[in-house]
Specification:
Elements lengths: L7 H4 L10 H13 L18 E4 L6 H11 L6 H5 L23 E4 L5 H16 L4 H7 L4 H14 L6 H13 L7 H7 L36 H8 L8 E6 L2 E5 L2 H19 L4
Antiparallel strand pairs: 1-2, 3-4
Helix pairs in contact: 6-10, 7-8, 7-10, 8-10
Length: 284
């Protein structure tokens, strides 16, 4: 009897996800991780009064990156905003259990004088609630037999995994297809979240870590979102592109290959690995 699901011991050596996103990670995620919000304070002298600073939160940032950005724009000691979460009285879904991951909505926020971390966090969460809990997002989540928090969790995976915006709907479909078939998601992005890192290189040892975010070992969705997705990723999560795909890998920038055939996926991964080896080989 044939099955599309490879033996469990075999799947751990094959990346399900978009590991070929090397160029984007090198030029995007790393920059996003270091270039925290830049205060846009314009010193104009006596004739031009100073404008309020602005806080820029990119799509896909994790809560820790957001906290660091708020600390920086408010000139606060490192860790101040993270400690403020428990005091902020954020209007989060019950499923979040006080963890704002996924609800620190990516946007540009004005930071007037006297702003506190609690106010900034509350504004982000209020913005997320307006975006996520109104129509059509809430209706779309219900249509797909899930609540909004689950939709945001899927969207966070889509945000982390999709190499381009056009791939978002396909990545969402892979998530749905694997959930419906009782397959582990096997997303490298969830392991990266557990290990608090950004990398394309997930080892066999990584896939064995003891964490609720290890989607190689644990079934279903991770317990929380793994980043703060933008509105387009959330829309992809409630409107996945039709398809039977179970696997995907970005062989090279602009070339993400989705398939339902495990043997084809193995060939795609082999091509990706060959490209990675050739690019990492020292020049002679």
């Amino acid at each position: 009897m044939q099955t599309n699901t490879p033996p469990r011991s075999t799947t751990r050596t094959i990346r399900l996800t978009r590991r070929g996103r090397a160029a984007l990670v090198a030029t995007g995620a790393v920059v996003a991780g270091t270039a925290v919000a830049v205060p846009l304070l314009i010193l104009g002298g006596e004739e031009r009064p100073a404008k309020p600073a602005s806080l820029v939160i990119p799509e896909g940032w994790r809560a820790g990156q957001v906290y660091a950005a708020v600390d920086k724009v408010l000139a606060l000691p490192t860790g101040t905003t993270k400690k403020a979460v428990s005091r902020a009285r954020l209007k989060l879904p019950n499923d979040a259990q006080g963890n704002p991951e996924g609800y620190l909505f990516p946007a540009t926020y004005p930071v007037p004088e006297g702003t506190t971390p609690e106010k900034v966090l509350a504004t982000m969460v209020d913005t997320a609630n307006k975006k996520f809990h109104g129509a059509p997002i809430a209706a779309g989540a219900q249509r797909n037999a899930m609540n909004v928090y689950q939709a945001v969790t899927i969207a966070s995976i889509v945000q982390a995994e999709a190499a381009t915006k056009t791939d978002m709907g396909k990545v969402a479909r892979v998530v749905f297809n694997r959930l419906e078939r009782g397959m582990p998601l096997q997303m490298d992005s969830t392991i990266n979240y557990a290990l608090n890192r950004h990398t394309l290189r997930t080892t066999l040892g990584d896939t064995r870590i003891d964490s609720p975010y290890n989607s190689y070992q644990r079934m279903g969705l991770p317990p929380t979102p793994i980043d703060n997705p933008g509105e387009q990723a959330v829309r992809a999560a409630i409107n996945p592109t039709p398809g039977d795909w179970l696997y995907f890998v970005t062989v090279k920038p602009g070339d993400t290959r989705f398939t339902s055939d495990y043997a084809q996926h193995q060939r795609n991964v082999a091509e990706f690995n060959a490209r990675q080896r050739s690019q990492s080989s020292p020049a002679r």
